[in-house]
Amino acid sequence: MKEEKEFYERLERKGISRRDFMKYCGVVTATMGLSSSFIPQVAEVFAAPKQRQPVIWLHLGECTGCSEATIRTMYPWIDELVLEILDIAYHETIMAAAGHQAEDVLHAAAKKYKGKYICVVEGAIATKYNGGYGKIAGRPFMDVAKEIVPNAAATVCIGTCSSFGGIQAAKPNPGGYKGVSDALGVKTVNIPGCPPNPINLVGTIVNFLLLGKLPALDDLGRPTFAYGKSIHDQCPRRSHYENDEFVETFGSKEAAMGYCLFKVGCKGPDTYNNCATAKFNDGTSWPVEAGHPCIGCSEPQFWDKMTPFFEESK
Ligand code: FSX
Ligand code: SF4
Ligand code: F3S
Fold first, then answer.
1. CA-CA distance, 50 to 85, in Å (whole number)?
2. Where does residue 275 rank: exposed (0-12), middle (13-18), buried (19+ CB within 10 A)?
3. H or E segment and range at residue 221
4. 120 lines ligand 3 (CB under 6 A)
5. Distance 297 CA to ligand 3 centre (A)
6. Where are the chain's structural domains?
7. Phi, psi at residue 156, to the nearest 5°?
8. How many Å lie between the centroid of ligand 1 and the Cα of residue 123?
9. Given the CA of residue 269, which atom of ligand 2 is nearest to it?
10. Which atom belonging to ligand 2 lies closest to the Cα atom of 266?
11. Pocket of ligand 2 (CB under 6 A)
């Protein structure tokens, strides 16, 4: 109770009302596919965490957009909340240490939290030429991943790169880049998107802390709460041409179809993600709502399969 009271006082000092916080917990709960009766329990995960979950966050072949998206997530203060429930032992972009010191932190954290930490991986692994296409402190990504991934309680791949290879694995892929699961032959939780919506990472971690297990996954390792339906299935532009009243206003189905972006390359029918409901930037909008076709950023072989981006799929 005391802990909870202090938590709300800290929020208040940051100018965040309890109402705003509960609203956020409502969004997380809905994203996780849980009924609203779970909102108080989700709030408790943040307000009175049983323990801070240790995390080792690896950066491999990628652009760091996934970290950027997470740190600058939908509510400006949620990054701080996430940091309250997580003990991020190693994360190259946000840690103060550099060089040998950073390497020491990595080894020490892996030893101290062996079997207990969540390994979050951002980026793909180079597999050709002894991993020569990507190294940290002189060590190939593959070696770093082999030290950290097998000793984690769970490995969560954030972004299309660590999930499926992403841009690094685009043809001709000279470095032989692969996603983590493929490169190491292990099971990972995949949260694809380039970058992914941070709410899907938060939902996965809250699920782990609240229910003591990882969320249900599809055969590509993606949480079904977020990737169970296609973009097209949830697209509001579809309702334009499927709604008789709208079609009547426009005179014909063809005219109403003008709202659909398929002819300018929308890959929504082949892409599984919750962008239409979760949206980005405090629920402001998402690509298709903003007038841009979905380019299929969360799918395997994103670059090879989904290009040319602005041409109708065959
Ligand atoms: Fe990949 Fe993440 Fe795209 Fe970038 O690091 S999913 S290139 S947004 O940032 O891994
Ligand atoms: Fe489907 Fe894209 Fe058209 Fe929406 S805009 S209805 S996702 S093809
Ligand atoms: Fe990516 Fe398509 Fe969503 S491009 S962000 S999966 S709308």
1. 9
2. buried
3. none
4. no
5. 5
6. 2-226, 229-306
7. -115, 120
8. 6
9. 1
10. 2
11. 231-232, 235, 237-238, 260-262, 266, 268-269, 288, 294
- Helices 39-47, 78-85: inter-axial angle, 10-degree rounding: 70
Please give the structure tokens belonging to residue 68. Answer: 């950027």
238, containing H or E segment: helix 236-242
| Average pLDDT, rounded, for the chain | 92
Query: Could you say which DSSP state residue 32 is in?
Result: T
What separation in Å is there between the alpha carbon of 222 and the centre of ligand 2? 22
Closest-CA residue, ligand 2 atom 3, reads 260
pLDDT digits (tens, 9 = 90+) for 42-89: 999 888 888 889 999 999 999 999 998 888 765 556 666 677 788 889
Q: What distances in angstroms separate CA 212 from CA 153, 196, 198, 258, one per listed residue?
A: 11, 23, 20, 47
pTM: 0.93
**Residue located via tokens 């307000």:** 47
The topology (CATH level 3) of 2-226 is Rossmann fold (3.40.50)
**Both tokens of residue 140?**
């190939």
CATH topology of domain 229-306: Cytochrome-c3 Hydrogenase; Chain A, domain 2 (4.10.480)
